Amino acid sequence: MASNGIKDKVAIISIGCTPFKEHWDKSADDLLIDATTQTLKSVELTTEDIDAYWVGTAQSGMSGLTLSMPMKLHGKPVTRVENYCATGSEALRQACYAVASGAYDTAMAVGVEKVKDSGYQGLNAFPMPTAGTNRTLTAAAMYSLVLPAYAKKYGVDEDELRMVVAKIAEKNHYNGARNELAQFRREISAEEICNMAAVAGKLSVFDCAGVADGAAAVIVVPAEKAYDYTDKPLFVKALSFVSGNGSGLIDPEYDYTTFPECEAAATDAYKQAGVDNPQACIAMAEVHDCFTPTELILMEDLGFSQRGEGWSDVLAGKFALTGELPINTDGGLKSFGHPVGASGIRMHYECWLQLRGEAPENRKIRDTDKNLGLVHNLGGYPGEMVSFVSILGTEVG
Amino acid sequence: MRGIIKSSAYLPHYRLKRTDITNFFGSGRASGIRSVAAHDEDTVTMGFEAARIIVSAGGNIEPEALWFTTSEPPYLEKTNANVIHSALQLPKATSAYDFNGALKSGIGAMKTALTSSQTVLLVQADIRGGLPSSPDESQGGDAAVAFLIGDANADQLLATYLGGSSETLEFIDRWRDPREKVAKQWESRFVEDAYIPLIKEAWGQALANSGLKDSDLSNVVLAGQNERVKRQAAKLITVERFQDNIASSVGNAGAAEAGLLLHSALEHADLGEKIALCSFNDGVEILIFEVTSDNEVLNPIEHQIENRSELSYGKFLQWREMLPVQPPNRPAPSRISASASKRESDWKHGFVASRGDQSGLIHMPPSRLSIDQADNNDAMLMQSMASSIGTVVTFTVDHLVFSQNPPVVFAVVDFNNGGRIPIEITDVAENEVEIGMNVEPTFRKLFTADGIHNYFWKVRPIRSTKE
């Protein structure tokens, strides 16, 4: 049993991302073409130069044809992947392994989601035929279960904890307001969020990720060839993935204050990357803030806060743009929006900008000697989820 | 001897004050309350709730057949009794039949059971309504009853059947177009006159057939849709009547009315009392019983009358689909799969989970493999959860999800003897739920799509008045 990882074997040489928003005038094909051509163009490559493709989408297409047809690819292998909201990261993970194996010299992962053609609010899963006994609660309601459980376990007043998670939304809106690709570019105060009507438990609409259309693409090559394409590649230090067995749904021991799949994926990723103390070497992280309580729990599961201290670290501003460990500097799912298949690659896009010093001045992280970025992307619900963690670095070694 | 071995009744949790209707329209006079089936109940789920109490009470007499009666069948052509049969986890060799449509089917099925040779689990349920402001709407009530009917020694029979009579005559009294939600009635005075000779004839025959005279009877129970007919019957049959409060606190339960009134009479009767049950629906049916044991009825109505929540008239109209309301902007559910439902029937209908053979860890839904590696593969044991008591560990309220009655109140429930499930709480107000609340499983209709009803389980609060 091993999770050896592929540290420093593969490098990212280009990433592109479309604006995330309600693209009433663009189809999934349009978004795929925009993200893909932009990503190729920045390193002066064509579709012919890419040996293999992975396209991640939860519900906007089936099979590799989702990409090969709009892009008019000629005889290329294209695989469609799906892994809930971690779909984009999964596409990248598969592309990285293909390159690391030596099977291909260049691989591209593209993520896309066209959510806003359904006419319904929120994200709605494609219905599979069932016996009708499956739970039908919304994701917002499932994640809202975290707050009373966390408040009780750590003796935090429920109203204060509600303010804590609203502060997470406030922070992500602050960052997103400084990101021209983000869906919601308006700052909003935690107090305003707390005063809104609850839609699920104590959560308001502003505690939920933005629902947006969008696409993002990334090109990976063997690490030793990275400098042929760019002066500032990012090296893949770790790729970890854990798919839960649903024990949280049936095991009375599970208390809704942690996501074991995320903790396990983080532990594996730190081991692959040789990271002993994440807080000492990670410059910034993009995490899956699908709902505000999710980001709170992730701070502890990823080792950024001690157990039971995530809420006070949030209040202390530790995860703000200018804080000790900036989280979701691009606005996160909350403000950037969440086109399911694209989000994982969008997270890597922000690492790309920040670690290369290319983020706009008004949302650039403080200059430190830390040179690692972390991406966390999950899918599913408390008790039954899949979790992805990657670590990227600017240098080999 | 033959008669009623066990008797059980189920009243839904909600009540509508009749003055809420008259106040809404600004006219009319009304008093009392009526029972209201919840948005997630139908006659099948209510019938099951009455029947499950008889089955879980145990005893050595097993039903050979389950007969279901209602004027509001969730399905035509398909047998509704099969759903109850499956939810009760009865053996496949136990037959299940519907006696549906006409209001007379209730008393008819009862008489047929009493005069047949099988042990019959008789389940009767109805949901009653009419056009807004109509007497049917106001005076109707939703309820279910169940009786185990068969042969036993007299001291094992709650009530021994002594005899009865039928008077059948075709005339237009009350009718409903199968495509319509509400019934119509002919002028009462005609109907009243049509019944009088039938009542006289039937009463004389019933006494003769059971070898009794008026003075032998201690209670006569009158069932039927027409109040004038019942008043005439009370004049013609001079036996003293026990004044139950069903009409003022539950309402007229249609095809289940006669059964509910009989159950209520048995609830208050003493050993040796003889009771005549008279039904006036498309003719007259009379059944005469003697209380021959000290056994109590199951789930007495009195307790359930106290255990209730008031419902607004607006919600009542919404639940009865008399008033369409704005649903959440989410896709409506798709129809369930017949093959998947058949595979999962024990879970879906019976709430049967699996338990690890070594760890004892309960898996809901049941699973072939255990999350505890100590357990052997494909060695899990079946574990019925339908009668388990659970506790709310944490909960939330979902205003976004599609529901017939938003918001959805949803809880993580740990059962006292093991097992956890995240599940919807029903029959509860949003502000009533709290961590630590005791709940029990209840069989409900989750939604209907393409005419297929999706039956599954929720939990409901265990309220103190029931204990």
What is the terminal separation of chain B in angstroms? 33 Å
Average pLDDT reading of chain A: 96
**Shape estimate of chain A:** globular
In percent terms, what proportion of residues of chain B is strand? 25-35%
Uncertain residue ranges of chain A: none
Task: Give unreliable regions of chain B as ranges.
Answer: none
CATH third-level topology of the largest domain in chain A: Peroxisomal Thiolase, Chain A, domain 1
CATH superfamily of the largest domain in chain B: Thiolase/Chalcone synthase
Throw out a few tags for this protein.
heterodimer, A: about 400 residues, alpha/beta, Peroxisomal Thiolase, Chain A, domain 1, 2 domains, nine-stranded mixed β-sheet, 9 strands, globular, B: about 475 residues, alpha+beta, OB fold (Dihydrolipoamide Acetyltransferase, E2P), 13 helices, 22 strands
Describe this structure in words.
The complex is a heterodimer of chains A (397) and B (467). In chain A, strand 8 and strand 9 form a beta hairpin. Chain A is globular, with a radius of gyration of 20 Å. Chain A has 2 domains: 10-116 and 213-233, Peroxisomal Thiolase, Chain A, domain 1; 139-207 and 235-392, Thiolase/Chalcone synthase (Peroxisomal Thiolase, Chain A, domain 1, 3-Layer(aba) Sandwich), CATH 3.40.47. Chain A is of the alpha/beta class and 397 residues long. In chain A, 34% of the residues lie in helices and 17% in strands. Chain A has a 9-stranded mixed beta sheet, sandwiched between helices. In chain B, strands 5-4-6-7-1-8-13-12-11 form a 9-stranded mixed beta sheet, sandwiched between helices. A 5-stranded antiparallel beta sheet of chain B has the order 20-19-18-21-22. In chain B, a hairpin with a 4-residue loop joins strand 19 and strand 20 (420-425). Chain B starts with a strand and ends in a 6-residue tail after the last strand. The model of chain B has no long low-confidence stretch (mean pLDDT 95). The A-B interface holds A 118, 120-122, 124, 127, 129-133, 135-138, 140-142, 144-145, 148-149, 152, 198-201, 245-247, 249-252, 254, 256, 383 and B 328-331, 333-334, 336-337, 340-341, 343-344, 347-348, 361-365, 371, 393-402, 408, 410, 412, 414, 418-424, 435, 446-447, 454-456.
